[in-house]
Every structure is written in C-alpha cells, then in structure tokens.
Design a protein that fits this description.
By secondary structure, this protein is an all-alpha fold. It has 10 helices and no strands. The longest helix is centred in the middle third of the chain and has 20 residues. The termini are far apart.
C-alpha cells in the first residue's frame, strides 16, 4: 500500500475536532440533566383572606371554599328534594373546617358541622359575598373556641365561660370587622360588614347558638360520660301450658 496522504499531525487534529463536535458542552449537558421546573401555583383570588386577619382573628374558611360549598349545595338542591341529606357538601365542609380527625369527638364535630352548614346557608340566603361569609364563619368559630376558656365572672373556680362572656367576645370580634370600625381609626380593625348585615348575622347567632347555649356547652365543652354495664341474668324457662283437651268448661 502507498504512503498516507495526510501527515500524522493533521490526522490527529482532525480526530480531536470530530470528538469535540460529538461531545456536548458542559453547559448544554447540565441544562439537559436539570429536572423541569414545577408549575407555578395558581394566583390567589383578589378576595382571598390571610391565615390571620389584621384583627388577630384566625381564618376558618377560605373564600374559594365558601364558594365551592355553595355550588355543591345548589347542585344538591336542584337534583334532590330539600328533605334529603347533602353528603357531598357536608363532607366537603367538614374537611375544610378540619373536622373528623379525632374519632373520640365524632359527635361533637358533627354538631359543629351542622351549625356551620346552617350558617353558610343562611348567609347565602342573605346574598352576602363569599368574603363576608368566610369572615363570619371565622368569628363564629372563635366564639365556639371561647366556650372552652375558664370563666372570669363565675363564683366557682374552673367553670367554663358563661353565655354572657361568650356573647361579649362575639360582639367584640363582630364590631372589629364592621365598616364603622376603620372609619373611627381604631387599631386592629377591618371593614367587612355593614350595620344591617351585623343585625342579620346577630339575629341568626342569637337564635341558634346563644338561645341554646347550655345545650351546646354540655355537648361541646362538658360532654357527659357514657357508662356501659354488662351483667349476666339467668332466666327460668316457663312451664309448658296445660293440655286444653283435658280442660273443663267453666260455668259463667
């Protein structure tokens, strides 16, 4: 065979160029190996509430949760009679409020869920916005939490909060979220409700919660302990009835 036309140095340089062209750059390899970025979370609605309001009130429900509950209730009312149960909306509301985690308080959670369901249904009938309904639910939940505190006015030490103390707490929270509170430049206030809405909300809470305060307190704060007793009882077997063929007619 004849001598090679390319000198050794030239052939080595060409092979290096081919290898450099075949191998990707480190920057390109790093970009290809990097995992894709997760999608950005959807933006919050403009009427969304923070976890803690400027008044110090803890949020119980978000505005989108109130709207979704109302949609479920409307679908159930359109598809079934009003006397039937609404399991989908009740289950959604219980999950949104965090009920059902403690199995020992299943009955108490069911009572609270029923109250909040009636509250949201009432606010929907009053044509309140979902933001106002979420704030109202937060106020009511804080009122229920106040029931577990110790009373500061009862003579006996250790008694739970009385109805008057809980109502004063409800009144304080409600007035802090009225339109008149920011106008008075009071610190820690938030204008949400108008005065007519305050009256309507107070009418519902007074006739549903405070009118039956002792009952709610016995169920939620001081539940009665149930005691189950099991005993063995021996029963005597009754005697066989006499043969009627041997019976005698009795003169009347």
């Amino acid at each position: 065979s004849g001598p090679s036309l390319c000198p050794p140095l030239l052939s080595g340089a060409m092979s290096k160029r081919k290898n450099a062209a075949a191998a990707p750059s480190p920057e390109l390899a790093a970009e290809e190996a990097a995992p894709p970025e997760p999608p950005a979370p959807p933006p919050e609605p403009p009427d969304a509430l923070p976890a803690e309001l400027p008044t110090g009130l803890r949020r119980a429900l978000q505005t989108v949760q109130v709207a979704e509950y109302w949609e479920l209730r409307q679908e159930e009312q359109e598809g079934a009679s009003a006397s039937q149960e609404a399991p989908a909306s009740r289950a959604f509301l219980a999950g949104a409020l965090g009920f059902g985690k403690d199995l020992s308080r299943h009955f108490q959670d069911d009572v609270l869920c029923s109250f909040f369901a009636d509250l949201l249904d009432n606010l929907s009938s009053l044509c309140l916005t979902r933001r106002k309904a979420a704030v109202a639910a937060s106020i009511v939940r804080a009122t229920f939490a106040k029931m577990h505190d110790r009373s500061e006015t009862c003579v006996r030490v250790g008694e739970p909060c009385s109805s008057s103390e809980c109502f004063l707490e409800y009144k304080r929270l409600l007035l802090a979220h009225t339109m008149a509170a920011p106008a008075a430049q009071a610190p820690g206030t938030m204008g949400v409700f108008t005065l007519p809405e305050v009256r309507l909300l107070t009418d519902f809470v007074s006739t549903s919660l405070f009118q039956h305060y002792t009952l709610y307190q016995c169920v939620l704060v001081c539940p009665q302990a149930s005691v189950t007793k099991r005993v063995e009882v021996s029963l005597e077997r009754p005697r066989r009835p006499p043969d009627l063929n041997c019976a005698k007619l009795k003169a009347v």
